[in-house]
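A reminder before we start the practical. When you read a complex entry, don't treat the lines as separate problems. The point of joint prediction is that each chain is placed relative to the others, so the output describes one connected object in space. Small molecules and nucleic acid strands, if listed, are placed in the same frame. In the example below there are two entries. Take a minute to note the order of the lines before looking further.
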Amino acid sequence: MSEKEFWDIIAPLNPSILGFAFRLLNDQEKAKDIHQDTLEKLWKRRRKLKKEGNIKSLAMTITKNKCIDLIRLEGRYIDRSINELELHTKQDFESKDLIHQIKVRMKQLPTKQQMIIELKDFQGFSNSEIGAIMDMTVNNVRVNLSRARKFLTEQLRHEWQ
Amino acid sequence: MSGNRLDILEERFEEGTLNEKETQELKGLLKENPSHPLGAYFLWVDRTKNDTDIKVSRQEVLQGLKTRQRHSSWRYAAILLVIVSAGYLLIPKLNTEKMELLSNKELDKTYAESLKTLSAFSTMLNEGINDIYSGADFSTPFKDFKQLNETTKQILDDENDDK
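Here is the predicted structure of the whole assembly.
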């Protein structure tokens, strides 16, 4: 496969890979490194790329794994959600900016749930595609997505009632 | 009517069971109801997407790939060099000094001893044959063994002279 052919395949994926890594890592340079790591891995598999059913899913799986490795290395991996008591912290109710509240809450989510929100609402993957990328059952994806969205929109519902 | 539909879609959104078409429908209904707080969620998604948009050029990406591949090759070469060097230093049989000691001293000694053994053996054989054939008319084997003994002694003497 020539460089041009490779570029034609990966060019539409660049914004997704970079956006995914940037939003999870909060660091543009690290996101660019992860992007290059992902492309390097795809380049090594370039002979098989055309046969891959969903290249975007493959690219996101590689990116997700690289991000998890880095987040674990930096000791920022969140396994469990913050409990109910901690949810109603002063900062949540002090801020009237709903968008800011969602942003703050997103960082408090378990890392896997952050990734599921990212893949669903930012990248537009279906639950079954997310299952394949995250190595989860579709039902597990739905449960985690539901928990994450409820957590993120809790304050919004409070405002609405 | 749209209020009921909005409630249903909102509930399914939270359950994580909305498909892409229904998600677009929910977004449309939220635009019609701008005061609905769920609109803030989609606004957050849109704003975050815009804020985290990174542009990369083809040249930047492909150049980065080439640099990485070059670094990767050097890394493998360095690892290979370390392994080969460690192997050479750690395997004692490859020590040249010990090899030389074996080849010079040990071989000379073994060669000299083998000549002595051959000489002793031929002497013994010669004496035995001499006893057997003493008084007999035919003496060819005796002559042959005698000659062998003389030749062996001559070689041993030559070797000693060389030293």
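Discuss with your neighbour: The domain at 1-77 of chain A is CATH 1.10.1740 (Rna Polymerase Sigma Factor; Chain: A). What might explain this?
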